[in-house]
């Protein structure tokens, strides 16, 4: 009963408790410096057009793997509790009020048996999102593998999408050996592994470990053709950040010989194979652009950046893969920063094609 008393009891503290404070062991996985952005032609084209994110610099970071003891994981928020209180560092993009109100709920508690092989948390609460899975889960799996935890019992979504099971297998893990988790439940551990990547601590840092994770999966896929593709990633029916005349842009790019794809229509293996062949990838903020991690170094990334939500997450993933970047600002008519709002203005396609003509001078050879 002593174990459960620890889980339920809130103990007084003088301030927030950090992961390092409560971890029984901490393994430093990598320490990464700040890195300046690499823009196509220094971020300026011949007619004076400039890329967004001029002067952007990634964040330095020290990224660790923690062994936590006597903790509870709230599945819906993917936040840990220690001594009855939330570990705030694990509250990745959560409502502070919801986190502050979080407590251990005995009626929802599931105890995870403590085996010689530890349990490991490998995903955030947006685990069904392809970008989040690639940026948070795949580096965590690689970290587990290189630290000798290849047999860790992964805490996984109860319902897995095919690309999740596929990338687990490609990373050397068997989804069938994982522990399925359900929203609304809480999970009690005597011991569990947790990496900084899960909580987004490397989201704006150039992580060699993350790059190694992606390269290991890409290297396992045999070539399916030459490096000859210029790819446009369509948003299609997705409502978030929708461009009203995307179909017109798609038609114009197809006429130029572009491969226009909706990434969600392809398996994980197919996406890796397609993007390994890219010389240029083009699109806007969305999970499909996360496929830049499969590209070979030197592939150019051309991003259409909504003026109301200038998010450098795709830029960062491209930097990790060694891709020069060009970002074209899209006037949208939206006044407030909003990551889901649709554009109220059509895209100036002639302007996009004009910049594309100049950018194509910097593509790697076929």
From TrEMBL:
Keyword Zinc-finger in annotation: no
Keywords tagged on the record: Glycoprotein, Glycosyltransferase, Transferase
Domain Glycosyltransferase 61 catalytic per the UniProt entry, residue ranges: 130-301
Any one GO MF annotation of this record: glycosyltransferase activity
Superkingdom per UniProt: Bacteria
Pfam annotation, one family: Glyco_transf_61
Name of protein: Glycosyltransferase 61 catalytic domain-containing protein
């Amino acid at each position: 009963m002593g174990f459960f008393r620890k889980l339920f009891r809130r103990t007084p503290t003088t301030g927030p408790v950090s992961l390092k404070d409560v971890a029984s062991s901490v393994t430093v996985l990598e320490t990464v410096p700040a890195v300046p952005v690499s823009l196509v032609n220094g971020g300026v084209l011949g007619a004076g057009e400039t890329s967004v994110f001029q002067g952007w610099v990634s964040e330095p970071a020290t990224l660790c793997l923690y062994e936590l003891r006597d903790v509870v994981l709230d599945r819906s928020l993917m936040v840990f509790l220690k001594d009855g209180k939330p570990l705030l560092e694990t509250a990745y993009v959560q409502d502070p009020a919801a986190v502050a109100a979080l407590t251990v709920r005995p009626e929802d508690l599931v105890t995870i048996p403590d085996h010689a092989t530890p349990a490991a948390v490998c995903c955030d609460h947006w685990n069904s999102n392809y970008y989040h899975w690639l940026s948070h889960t795949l580096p965590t799996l690689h970290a587990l593998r290189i630290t000798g935890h290849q047999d860790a019992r992964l805490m996984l979504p109860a319902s897995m999408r095919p690309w999740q099971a596929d990338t687990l297998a490609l990373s050397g893990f068997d989804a069938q050996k994982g522990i399925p988790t359900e929203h609304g439940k809480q999970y009690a551990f005597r011991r569990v592994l947790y990496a900084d990547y899960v909580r987004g601590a490397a989201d704006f840092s150039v992580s060699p470990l993350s790059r190694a994770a992606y390269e290991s999966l890409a290297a396992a896929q045999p070539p399916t053709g030459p490096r000859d593709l210029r790819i446009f990633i369509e948003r299609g029916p997705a409502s978030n950040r929708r461009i009203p005349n995307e179909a017109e842009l798609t038609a114009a790019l197809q006429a130029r010989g572009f491969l226009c794809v909706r990434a969600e229509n392809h398996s994980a293996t197919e996406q890796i194979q397609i993007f390994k062949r890219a010389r240029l990838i083009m699109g806007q903020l969305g999970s499909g652009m996360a496929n830049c991690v499969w590209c070979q170094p030197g592939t150019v990334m051309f991003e259409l950046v909504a003026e109301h939500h200038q998010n450098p997450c795709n830029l960062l993933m491209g930097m990790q893969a060694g891709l020069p970047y060009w970002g074209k600002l899209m006037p949208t008519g939206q006044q407030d920063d909003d990551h889901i709002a649709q554009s109220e203005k059509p895209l100036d396609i002639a302007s996009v094609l004009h910049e594309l003509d100049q950018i194509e001078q910097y593509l790697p050879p076929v």
